[in-house]
From TrEMBL:
SUPFAM superfamilies: Aminoacid dehydrogenase-like, N-terminal domain (SSF53223). This is Uncharacterized protein. It comes from Stieleria neptunia. InterPro entries: Aminoacid_DH-like_N_sf. GO terms for molecular function: oxidoreductase activity.
Amino acid sequence: MDGITEPVVLVLGHPIAGNPAQFALERAFASMDLGWRVFSCDVPAQRIDEAIAGAEVLGFRGLLLDQNLVTRLDEGAERSDLYWRGNASESRWHTENVLSTWLEREIRKHFETLDSENSEIGPLLWIGTPDPSFPSQIASEQAHSPIAWASTEAIEHARLIAIAETVDVAQWPRCQDATLVVDFANPENDLDQIRSLGYNVLGREEVRIGILLESIQRWTGKQPVVDVLTEAIEEYLAV
């Protein structure tokens, strides 16, 4: 197709400053000996559809939206966070809510590792406003606390907990089984304290790396070593 002749992907955010995606992606492409390039741009939410359409027309091989730009559209559907072409000659992008895809796989993987008596997914407890990227239908049973609090009984009953607010972890009971916690809060909760109580946790760092791995897989058909992304993100955030 006409347009960009070398593989280039675009990362959009608002704000984009402080986002480690470009740095991590460049490290990953270099580790795989792929001559792909990465651009980052700051785009306000009200102009995101224009930016996506323009990047598609200009021939970018892929596009990744920061989660702060993944919002619900007027018709109620959720905007995709990942865009890619199956090959350079395709004029249109494929799209996917890749965070939802990654979360569902990680949740299923967690429960599949447990013994048969505990392998059923859920019950699910949401604390705060549910995030549309969470694969909520995955759970056998659901409960919702709209505020940043849940009773000891509700936490003990749940085996999958999703948090969208800052919670007082000091009030949580110790985990008696392999309960999985997914933290959507911004800023994130004290994940080390949650882990010290015996819970398994997926936090922002795991989510960020998961999204990048999935994105690279869609764009190139390959995945880098996870440590390459982890070390790049840690280096970037330490500066």
